Amino acid sequence: MKKEKKGWKDLPIGLVLEAGSSKEFETGDWRSEKPIWDSEKCTHCLLCWVYCPDSSIIVKDGKVQGIDYRYCKGCGICAEECPPKVQAIKMVREEK
Amino acid sequence: MIVARTGNEAMAEAMRQINPDVVAAYPITPATEVVQLFSKFVHDGDVDTEFVPAESEHSAISACVGASAAGARVMTSTASQGLALMHEILFIAAGLRVPIVICLVNRSLSSPINIHCDHSDTLASRDSGWLQIYTENAQEAYDTTIQLVKVAEQALLPGIVSTDAFIISHGMERVELVDDNEVPKFLGERKLNYSLLDVDNPVTLGALDLQDFFFEHKRSEIDAMDHVLPIIERVQKEYGDKFGRYYSTVDEYKMDDAEVVIIAMGSTGGTAKVAVERLREKGKKVGLVRARVYRPFPKDAMLKAVTKAKVIGIMDRADTLSTLGGHLYNDVRSILYDTATRPLLKNYIYGLGGRDISIEEIEAIYDELFNIKKSGKVDKNIVYYGVRGE
């Protein structure tokens, strides 16, 4: 959704914007590696959810549902934090 | 009420009467007393202020930014190295348009280390987007502190009101105070267009602003500076009408027919006024202009003040270390460029590190300026006045 960019006279004073505007800024296309989540292996410990810096682990009723690729930058922290005995998240090269 | 107060005490009294919601500060010589006295007011229950004794000036001003964005009326105090440590956040406060007021005491920036007066500290921050007002005495410091809170909140710009270290900050003077209950009435409540504490109407503050919007936001900040002088003039007049003491952005003294003029800032204005009186008694057409408001620069008022001057001596209590002389000299020189009859200018850098400037020395400067008027030429544009070895 492209918006017409405002001139300086029409901007609110003092760098104030509507709350939650970062939602409109989808950072998923920054990714060079992509986390693949395996629902079979996942123990739902939620460590990935705790550590994800972009709130890209989708959780519902305490259970991981998947990864929000609109915002996931592919940093790999989730795969790193997933316990070694579980290894439910694997990083793969992003191919387009 | 007429009382005896030092500059620091006068500023602390103004803060007590303003009763800000938040003061976050870290004490530093020679502004320590402002915060120290104010913390006593907090302790004694004379104010309702949330007082935050921070661990550094960087933290103090950062807390001020947050509190002001939350909607509080916020003040702090510092000097010299303290202001330098705040430097990064000064630009952020101005960009976020939070109307914080700093009661500042002008002290030399290191090195060499020194605790006495010059204007190098605030002048190093002149491009940060803060209003800057330099006062001549304790009375003006008191009055301006109250005025600046109102100006800052109306313009949504932060501001610095300053006194000269020790000369004003620690000099005891006769000061007339406004009644305690008159100050909150004069200031009114701070009007908010948002508050970080308003959870029903959340906002994003200070988001990343790249190529597509940074310039527009900066332009809007510049526009606020372009339009603040009428606000300052209006508040000065309101204050005068109410409390009887009138101020102007540019303080003119015996300028009506003055041909030889000195422009100065801070306490030197008072010293120079005595020199002007002495020379006037001898029939000499001398005058003084004191740049009270320095940022933004009151260009029109300054041009109007010096319109009849043939020779102007500009006294700077700091140097730009650019080979181009002092800050005030460069500003005045710049605004005179487009005038039809440019007066002759000479820059006197003086008083660095608190070196005294006497009435006699200023009289001698006027004499020198008369010689320039006679000869019609300036041999040396920039001189270092009162330094050994010249």
UniProtKB/TrEMBL annotation, chain A:
Keywords of this entry: 4Fe-4S, Iron, Iron-sulfur, Metal-binding, Repeat
CC cofactor: [4Fe-4S] cluster
Keyword DNA repair appears in the UniProt entry: no
GO MF: 4 iron, 4 sulfur cluster binding; metal ion binding; oxidoreductase activity, acting on the aldehyde or oxo group of donors, iron-sulfur protein as acceptor
Record InterPro entries: 4Fe4S_Fe-S-bd, 4Fe4S_Fe_S_CS, PorD_KorD
Taxonomy, superkingdom: Bacteria
PROSITE patterns found in the cross-reference section: 4FE4S_FER_1, 4FE4S_FER_2
Domain 4Fe-4S ferredoxin-type: residue ranges: 33-61, 62-94
Name the UniProt record assigns to this protein: 4Fe-4S ferredoxin-type domain-containing protein
From TrEMBL, chain B:
Gene Ontology molecular function: any one: oxidoreductase activity, acting on the aldehyde or oxo group of donors
Residue intervals of the Pyruvate flavodoxin/ferredoxin oxidoreductase pyrimidine binding domain: 13-236
GO biological process: carboxylic acid metabolic process; response to oxidative stress
One Pfam family in the UniProt entry: PFOR_II
Matching InterPro entries: PFOR_II, Pyruvate:ferred/Flavod_OxRd, Pyrv_Fd/Flavodoxin_OxRdtase_N, THDP-binding, Transketo_C/PFOR_II
SUPFAM superfamilies according to UniProt: Thiamin diphosphate-binding fold (THDP-binding) (SSF52518), TK C-terminal domain-like (SSF52922)
Alphabetic keyword roster: Oxidoreductase, Pyruvate
Name of the protein: Pyruvate ferredoxin oxidoreductase
Organism: candidate division TA06 bacterium DG_78
Gene behind the chain: porA
